[in-house]
Amino acid sequence: MTFALDSLVHPIVQAPMGGGPSTPALAAAVSGVGGLGFLAAGYKTIEAVRGDLDQLRSLAPAGVPFGINLFAPPEHGAGAANVAAYADTIRAEAERSGTVLGQPRWDDDRYAEKLDLVCAEHVPVVSFTFGCPSVDDVRRLRDAGAAVWVTVTTPDEARAAHATGVDGLIAQGIEAGGHRGAFDDTRPGDLGLLALLQLVRDAVGDATPLVATGGIATGRAVAAVLAAGATAAQLGTALMLCPEAATAPAQRSAIEDSHESTALTRAFTGRAARAIINRFLREHSENAPSAYPEVHHLTAPIRAAARQRGDAAGFNLWAGQAYPLAAAMPAAELVVQLATDARAALADTTARFCDSG
User: Fold this and answer.
1) For the whole model, what pTM was predicted?
2) How many CB atoms within 10 Å of residue 38?
3) CA distance 234 to 36
4) In sequence order, which residues have a C-beta less than 8 Å from that of residue 64 and are 6 or more positions away?
5) In 3-state terms, what secondary structure has residue 102?
6) Which strands make up the sheet holding 262-265, listed edge to edge?
7) Total domain count for the chain?
8) One domain for residues 20 and 130
9) Which of 93, 140, 304, 328 gets the highest tally of CB atoms within 10 A of its CB?
C-alpha cells in the first residue's frame, strides 16, 4: 500500500538537504518519532545512496516510513554560454584558496540509475526537485510501492505535476533556504508560502495532499500551514543545528551567530538558491549566469576548500529566512516539541475563535 501522508503521527517532514546536512541518522531520528525523514540523493554516487539506505534502515525502527529526494534532470541553463566569462570573474577566488576552478559540465546526476535504485529498494516516498518526472516514471515508481511527490513553486507547476498522477505536492515558498525547486530556473516562483498554498490548492483541488515548506521553524508556523490547507510541514534549516545533521561547522556558526539577512543568488551553483549573505554572494551574484549544473561544478573546488578551512565567507551558507530560530537540540526532541507546540497553537486558535463567536 502506498504511503499516506495523513498517517504520520506528527505532520512534520524533514527536508532533504543535498550536499551534506541530510544524513541517515537525521532521517532515522525524525521518522523514528513519527515524522517523515528524508535522504538526499543529489550529488551522490549510486554506491553512496545505497549505503545511506542501508544505514537508515539499520538505525530506524523496522517499518517506519522515510523518503529519498531525486533531482529531476535539469535543462541546459539559459546562461550556459556565459559560464566561461563567469569563470574569469571568480578565478581570483581559486587562487585565494590555493585551488583551481572545476570543469564546468552538464550532467543529469545519474538520474536513470537512481530511479532504478529507489524502485528496486521499494522506497516508501520519492520526491523530486528541479522538475517533474514523466508519467511513465511516476507510474513505475507507484508500481514499486512508492508515493511520488514533486516540489512546485507556482500554480502552473502544480497543475503540470498533478497531471502526471503524483501522490502529493511540496509547495515551496520563496522563504525557503537552498535551491528553488522551480522547473525552469529562469522563472522561479517568487510567491510567499501562504499565498502559494492557497493558489496551489485552488489549482489542483482538495484531494491532493500538500506539504508546505519555506521559513517554517516553530510550532506556530507548523500550525499556520496546517490551518492554510497543508497536510504536513517540511522543515530544513530548522534541523541544521541538530547533532544528527552533518552541517559544516562554519555554517553551524553562521546559523547560530550571524545577523545577516538571506538572499537569492546563482553565484554558487548557477541556480537560484537562498543563502545567508556573505562575501562571495555579495561579490559574485551580479555576474552569475543561470547555468546549472555547470556553475555548480565550476565552483565546487572553491566551496569545498572554504568549507574545509572554516571560511564562512567563501562557500554557500544555505538557509531559509527564519534561520535565526533554528535550535541546537536532538532531532527527535525537536520534532516532538514542534508537533506539541503546533497542536497547542491550533487549540488556542480554535478556542479564541469560538470565544469570539
Assistant:
1) 0.97
2) 26
3) 9
4) 31, 32
5) coil
6) 178-179, 273-276, 262-265
7) 2
8) yes
9) 93
Q: How far apart are CA 80 and CA 266, in angstroms?
A: 12
Is residue 354 over pLDDT 90?
no
One-letter identity of residue 195: A
According to DSSP, the residues that pair with 30 across neighbouring strands are none
Q: Which three cell numbers stand for residue 156?
A: 502552473
DSSP for 196-223, written as a single string: HHHHHHHHH-SSS-EEEESS--SHHHHH
Write out the residue range of the structural domain in which residue 94 sits.
Answer: 79-107+249-324
Question: What pLDDT, in 10s, does the model give residues 317-346?
Answer: 999 999 999 999 999 999 999 999 999 999
CB within 8 Å of 80: residues ≥ 6 apart:
106, 289, 291, 294
Same domain? 94 vs 133: no
Under 8 Å between Cβ of 234 and 212: yes
Strands (E), the chain: 12-14, 37-40, 66-71, 125-129, 147-152, 168-172, 178-179, 210-213, 232-235, 262-265, 273-276
pLDDT, tens digit, 9 for 90 and up, residues 79-101: 999 999 999 999 999 998 899 99
3-state DSSP assignment of residue 130 = coil
DSSP 8-state symbol, 318 = B
Supply the DSSP symbol for 230.
-
Q: What is the CATH number of the domain that holds 221?
A: 3.20.20.70
CA distances to 55, 113, 127, 141, 339 from 51, in Å? 6, 15, 19, 20, 30
Instruction: Looking at the structure, tell me whether residues 60 and 127 fall in a common domain.
Output: yes
Contacts for 212 with CB less than 8 Å, ≥ 6 apart: 171, 173, 193, 197, 225, 228, 230, 232, 233, 234
Q: Are residues 103 and 194 in the same domain?
A: no
- Judge if 224 and 351 occupy the same domain: yes
Indicate the SS3 state at residue 95: helix
The answer to whether residues 306 and 342 belong to one domain is: no
